[in-house]
Design a protein that fits this description.
Radius of gyration: 22 Å
Oligomer: single chain
Structural class: alpha+beta
Distance between the termini: 77 Å
């Protein structure tokens, strides 16, 4: 049996119509409306979970399909093998991430893995982020989705439409937050490993984030304890 294809309706629900086995008076198949539990709010939540918890680039996130995820007991991962770019409003999948270093597999934190496993299991197609008709997300649809995300975050922070508390928020800021948070955990995690997780080179990482690690350095204390007589 073919899998039902869901479309997003004006109430931001995912719906489809399936034949219920009966016929109309004109002999045509009678179809009943089904509404999926998956909503636009779930789509937005999935996007934020991924950029916050995995530090992916926007294009890497929008290109994700359910086949990029592995949910095993005690460990969930996501593999980055492609990227989505926009040619005007039209989406296009590139067979490679932004750089060669971008090919990587990352662990998904437990705090996000449960939701993402449920979200991917409920997809009506392969890709995580789609338009109302089920095709790859367009630039205009992405802009609307991000505006909704930013507005909800702003209201949660105490802002209003007239007096926003958050302005200028972008998906890339979450990537910076991911890397900054990991840099604060050096030497529990190495600079080399952080660069691998980011899909960047160690040189780039040091050029941009070295000041964070330097802030935590105390060379006098290290020398004192290491070379004590």
């Amino acid at each position: 049996m073919a899998k039902a294809k869901y479309k997003r309706n004006s109430r931001r629900e995912f719906e489809t119509k399936i034949w219920d086995g009966t016929y109309n008076s004109d002999g045509s198949k009678h179809r009943k409306r089904l509404v999926s539990k998956k909503s636009s709010a779930d789509l937005e939540r999935a996007f934020v979970y991924i950029i916050y918890s995995c530090g992916l680039r926007r294009g890497e996130t929008l290109a994700l399909s359910l086949f990029d995820f592995r949910f095993r007991k005690g460990q969930a991962t996501v593999s980055i093998t492609k990227s989505l770019i926009f040619d005007g409003n039209a989406p296009e999948i590139k067979g490679m991430p932004k750089t060669e270093n971008g090919l990587r597999t990352l662990p998904i934190p437990d705090s996000a893995a449960g939701f993402l496993q449920g979200y991917t299991a409920g997809l009506s197609g392969s890709f995580l982020f789609t338009c109302r008709g089920g095709g790859l997300i367009t630039h205009s649809s992405y802009v609307k989705m991000w505006a909704s995300i930013e507005r909800k975050m702003d209201h949660a922070a105490g802002g209003t439409d007239a007096f926003p508390a958050i302005t200028g928020l972008t998906a890339h800021i979450f990537r910076h937050n991911y890397c900054t948070s990991l840099c604060y955990r050096v030497p529990e995690i190495s600079v080399k490993k952080i660069a691998q997780l980011m899909g960047d080179s160690e040189r780039m990482l040091l050029d941009v984030y070295n000041h964070i690690m330097e802030e935590r350095e105390d060379p006098a204390a290290v020398i004192n304890s290491t070379l004590a007589i």
